Amino acid sequence: MLGPVILAASRSDRMRRLISAAPVTKQVVDRFIPGETVDGIVPIIQDLTSRGLELTMDVVGEDITRPEQAEAARDAYLALIDRLKELELGTRAEMSVKLSMFGQALEGGHELALANVRPVVEAAAAIGTTVTLDAEDHTTLDSMFAIHEELRKDFPQTGCVIQAYLFRTEADARRLADNGSRVRLVKGAYKEPAEVAYQQKHEIDKAYVRVLGILMEGAGYPMIGSHDPRLIAIAQELAYRVGRKLDEYEFQMLYGIRTDEHLRLAAEGHRMRVYTAYGTDWYGYFMRRLAEKPANLRFFLRSMVSKG
């Protein structure tokens, strides 16, 4: 059970300094976070879209302690949208945002996050794309869902994320699986207590399938966020059973993980969206990628041994 240990390390300033200082770290981080600036990420966007893939872009960073940092996060997304407009790639790349970056945890955070994210949603809509609100730990979800509902009044294409490991998620899925909704289903990557979340992998997998069934049978647009071959096959079977066409759902996977599978699904005619993060504040994002999958941790440790 290394996942909880790694997630605890993601909140440790001492571990942040230790891992950030390791000479090999940047080489490994680049596997998951291929750029630090808008200019640095443009070649990645162009390469992926040229291969028939779509993207969801995430500017990494969550430790917001001042309102001006939240405004800077807003401006970073607006700069990304301006660049997508210049490249005429607005319809191929959407945005994923964590409301913690927009000030959700600060005093008056709900209103502050809504005020900061709304201009991003407006600008995205203006270039033909949209925004998905990422799920964070369970204490933030009521605020996230309320902001999602408010944004959908003017921008019904605004998406949100639900996490299979939370007990509440089946009820959330039934509420969200309505006409026009866009819902990304993931397993979950935060350390949650047993009072609110399943703790065992087999329980989480079963919950994922149950929630996926609810979304597939609903009138919305499911987004399957998983690298698990078995869950991908189940998603395809469920879509077939309910008569969904290939453009009525999509798969989403992280940049740098199972790249061949990205291309295979796209070649089969599926909509395949690559979750692509960039930015300098990469530590929390990187540590959650290690916690999610033992293979990611093994890759990191092998690299540290071979290059350290």
From TrEMBL:
Proline dehydrogenase domain span: 45-299
Which pathway does this chain act in? Amino-acid degradation; L-proline degradation into L-glutamate; L-glutamate from L-proline: step 1/2
GO molecular-function term, one example from the UniProt record: proline dehydrogenase activity
Needed cofactors: FAD
GO BP terms, alphabetized: L-proline catabolic process to L-glutamate
**Keyword Cytoplasm listed:** no
Q: What is this protein called?
A: proline dehydrogenase
Reactions this protein catalyses: L-proline + a quinone = (S)-1-pyrroline-5-carboxylate + a quinol + H(+)
Looking up SUPFAM superfamilies in the UniProt record yields: FAD-linked oxidoreductase
Organism of origin: Streptomyces caeruleatus
Query: What are its E.C. numbers?
Result: 1.5.5.2
Enzyme class, broadest EC rank:
oxidoreductase
Listed Pfam families: Pro_dh
